[in-house]
Amino acid sequence: MSRKLSEIQIIELFSFCKKKGVKHYDLQIEIVDHLASAIEQRWEENPNLSFSEALPSAYSQFGIYGFSKFQKIKEKALRKKYTRLQWQYIGEFYRLPKIIMTIAFSLSLFTAIRLSDNLTRLSLFLLGLYALILLIYFRFFYENKSKIELTTCKSFLQIDYLNSIRGSLVTVGFLPYNLLIIASVAFREFHLSPQLIFFLELLISFLITLFVYILVAMFSYIPKRIKQDFSREFPQFVKS
Amino acid sequence: MGNNQLYKGSLATIILKLLGEKGRMYGYQITQEVKAISDGEFVITEGALYPMLHKLEAQGLLTVEIEMIGNRMRKYYSITNNGKKEVVDRMAEMEAFIRQMQSLLNPKIDLA
Predict the structure, then answer these.
(1) CB-nearest partner of B46 from A6, A34, A233
(2) Which of A29, A50, A187, B40 is 20 to 30 A removed from A16 (C-alpha atoms)?
């Protein structure tokens, strides 16, 4: 019977990770399993080796940088993964059959801009409508859909990332309306030809539609995806 | 003693190929398997392996499962359908590269 690590030694490995600067539990799991496997193999070769002798040699395999690069690269990888999924999701709106909806949405916005005699007033109206929708969404839907309730107080990289997305709403959320306001000022201040205004208004309508999809992807689809992925990986830590 | 510099650029291909053949594996197992296959010539350092696994997972080429093994959790990686396609492309690239290297370093005289 080969020698295995005890429960207490596993806990010691977790605190070893923490001491070496790996704070997130999702990263610790993998490192602990690796160190434990390496230590157990050393015990197979030399059963009399103590835990405190085997650990440094297992750790040394991680090279002179130890675990220091792990967190940065994992954070970058997470960001990349969800950015990729986000654009994939948005891209679907620009393919059949969803593109019909996209064009319809853009053209109704375009018609609204054309018909309104005061673009600033229209922007403010849309802004109010938008703020209201946002408020209702966050008040009643967001928490249910994407909030992850944990059964533990451990910290996870994925959850930190989810929270950082939420924090960026204020800065990203109002971008499309800034665009509209800038346009309304520009149309008033500069004397542009009617054809150019027509073209610019059409362009702005499509851009705002794209922005709205980006917002939907960032604040609705991606948080849901993170919750799904997290619940699949760590069902034991999610309150159901 | 193998020259690890030569292997470095191929780490992603090696990992994908291995997972394509063996099904799911965990990090430590990958290091041991590569060591065994290459008769100890090629040693993947842990500092390089995990960042690469995380990158491949982010690209959607690998997927992960976490399981309880004895008293600890273990993270298993397996290849996705996209990953399988990627292996085919990367292997073709690698083979072409090896052929070019061979003809460059060891040109055959064409007698025909």
Answers:
(1) A34
(2) B40
Using the beta-carbon criterion (under 8 Å), do B26 and A33 form an inter-chain contact? yes
Kindly write down the DSSP assignment for every residue of B43-84, as one continuous string: ---HHHHHHHHHHHHHTTSEEEEEEEETTEEEEEEEE-HHHH
Distance, in angstroms, between B16 CA and closest chain A CA?
17
Is A214 strand, coil or helix? helix
Beta bridge partners of B25: B77
In Å, how far is B92's CA from the nearest CA of chain A?
Answer: 26
- Between B29 and B7, the more confident residue is B29
159-218 of A, contacting B, C-beta below 8 A: none
Q: Which helix (H) or strand (E) holds A174?
A: none
The verdict on ipTM greater than 0.95 is: no
Cβ atoms A35, A55 nearer than 8 A: yes
**Is the pLDDT reported for residue A117 higher than 70?**
yes
What domains are there in chain B, each with its CATH number?
A: 4-104 (1.10.10.10)
Q: Rounded to an integer, what distance in angstroms lies between the CA atom of residue B34 and that of residue B19?
A: 11
Domain residue limits, chain A: 7-66, 71-237
What is the distance in angstroms between the Cα of A100 and the nearest Cα belonging to chain B? 29
B95, two tokens: 């083979």
Angle at Cα B64 formed by Cα B62 and Cα B68, nearest 5°? 155
Chain B positions touching A84 (Cβ under 8 A) are 58-60
Contact A29 B58 (CB under 8 A): no
| CB-based contacts of A28, cutoff 8 Å, min separation 6 | A14, A17, A18, A22
Give the strands of the sheet with B62-69, arranged side by side. Answer: B25-26, B72-79, B62-69
* pLDDT score of B1: 40
